[in-house]
Amino acid sequence: xxxxxxxxxxxxxxxxxxxxxAQTKTAHVDVNEVMAKMPAMLDAQKQLEKLSATYDAEYKKxxxxxxxxxxxxxxxAATVTDAINGERSKEVQDMQKRIVDYRDNAQKELQQKExxxxxxxxxxxxxxxxxxxxxxxxxxxxxxSSLLLADGTNLTVDVKKDLGF
Length: 165
Known about the structure:
Helix content: over 70%
């Protein structure tokens, strides 16, 4: 009798779980695709590339100056005093530090700029996904770019239309 009760309870739980999952409506959107094709994102990438090129040019200039001084100092090392060699060694070390600091600061500034640009665009995409998902009656909308199997309803095209591209 106990076994029958247990089987009956298990069957009810199983049927209830099936009923709940059958009522849940789920769709997916490839957020990476939407972000990559947004006109505003394409403009942002151009801005970041331009800024990066500016930083790269300045970095390259600093490295060339450093290498020129290093070559000059090495060539003259035998003909100058130890005091001058010591000053030059300190100068070269200071230049190395400035170059490394410049590179690190440039990377941080680029990352911050990218974050400042991408965050509002991502919020706009998120709002569009919510709007489209609710309008189509979905309770859950997942990011399709991270799903192993995305065989259900794809809202990517609808979200692109909502965003105007």
